[in-house]
Design brief:
With 132 residues, the chain is of the alpha/beta class. Helix content is 31%, strand content 19%. The longest helix is centred in the N-terminal third of the chain and has 19 residues.
Length: 132
Amino acid sequence: MRYFEVRKARIEIIPMIDIMFFLLVFFVMFTLHMIPSKGLSSHLASSSSTTTLPHPQVIVSLNTQGLIEVEGHVMTPDQLTSYLAHMAHPQDVVVTIAGAQDTSLQHLMTVMDACRHAGVTQIGLAAREIQH
């Protein structure tokens, strides 16, 4: 009568390891999107043709008076150029400029020139998508 034999209990550990790895990957991917970017709160310009840009490595905030801020530090255009030039491989750095809605074109061009003088070639402009 094998039916009534006492069998030793086993805990299957392989499925539990699979579930733990899945949860680990899920939480890592989820927390990557929760890390906020530092910058100034501003009223971005609107556009009906916005597209999603690659995640920027540097966000440059530009207000209406032309004040440049990067990671909580106010900078001049020369300081911005120096900051970007000292990064590893500046030609691969992705910069997004978050300019206020009333920022003059000259202030924007000054920031873009500072980025290009540092060797940055990937520059994007942050904009709010117009809701239809």
